[in-house]
Specification:
The chain has eleven helices and two strands. It has a two-stranded antiparallel ribbon with strand order 1-2. Strand 1 and strand 2 form a beta hairpin. With about 230 residues, the protein is mainly alpha-helical. The chain has two domains: about 70 residues, Orthogonal Bundle (Arc Repressor Mutant, subunit A), CATH 1.10.10.60; about 150 residues, no CATH class. The chain binds a DNA duplex (21 and 21 nucleotides) through helix 4 and helix 7.
DNA sequence: AAGTCACCCAACCGCGTCTCT
DNA sequence: TAGAGACGCGGTTGGGTGACT
């Protein structure tokens, strides 16, 4: 990251109300250090005045965003776990595009990250199905197939050290729904489908497995339509 | 090796809401 | 109560990078 950050941003001309030039674009390592240092000694909040008093040629907005989405110490980096993906799917079906609200349920994850995940991964699948990602049909597909597979994946990778977001009964207010999801295996069978029908063993749900760029290849699409017909 | 394409994600923007005076 | 400024959210953009040809 630091390599790109050290470059001069191309989009960088803007002025504050005092006529001082404001920087835009990627943050440099130096700027990051200034912001971190200033927040550690003065605390966060009052972003506009913070930006000025820290001597950063950035808007308060930009400082806030940089801190919340990247510099804050408790931010988790790396791929979303199956547990996290499952929680996102469930919470999105409940709350829609309320990214910040969804992010509250995933400690260490930012609304921006979740939003990006949704747009790049989930919406991509919907596009390939030629469905609106908020449509009943797509949500049904997610519920009947994606979620059970995530649960299965969670089971496979269960280990004492695995990071688990708010899924434990004592912490998760949505447990009843999670139980519904887990029983959707039954719903799956109820539509007369075997999991093997869907080539599940080769499926790449998260872009992380064998040679497939996307889960919803034509076979799975066909299988989905099979489900779809039953749903209708 | 070079060019092109697609994906990912950090950062920006606009706008609605909140808070303070 | 109204106005102004700060804050937060969701949508969008653009650059970097890796895969593919």
């Amino acid at each position: 990251m630091s390599s790109s950050k050290d470059k001069i941003p191309k989009r960088c001309s803007k002025f504050d109300e005092d006529g001082n030039e404001l920087r835009r674009g990627p943050w440099t390592l130096e700027e990051d250090n200034v912001l971190i240092g200033h927040i550690s000694s003065h605390g966060e909040g009052q972003w506009n005045s913070l930006a000025k008093s820290a001597g950063l040629k950035r808007t308060g907005k930009s400082c806030r965003l940089r801190w919340l989405n990247y510099l804050k110490p408790d931010i988790k980096r790396g791929n979303l776990s199956p547990q996290e993906q499952l929680l996102i799917l469930e919470l999105h079906s409940r709350w829609g595009n309320r990214w910040s609200k969804i992010a509250e349920q995933l400690p260490g994850r930012t609304d921006n990250e979740i939003k990006n995940y949704w747009r790049t991964r989930v919406q991509k699948q919907a596009r390939q199905l030629k469905l609106d990602c908020n449509s009943t049909k797509f949500l049904e597909a997610v519920r009947l197939y994606w979620m059970p597979r995530l649960l299965e994946k969670m089971e496979q990778h269960k280990s004492p050290s695995s990071q688990t977001p708010n899924l434990a009964p004592s912490h998760n207010p949505f447990l009843p729904d999670m139980e519904i999801i887990s029983t959707s295996h039954l719903s799956f069978d109820g539509y007369g489908m075997q999991e093997s029908d869907c080539h599940a063993a080769d499926v790449d749900w998260f872009g992380e497995e064998i040679g497939m760029t996307s889960f919803w290849n034509s076979d799975e699409l066909w299988q989905f339509r099979k489900v779809d017909q039953c749903v209708d």
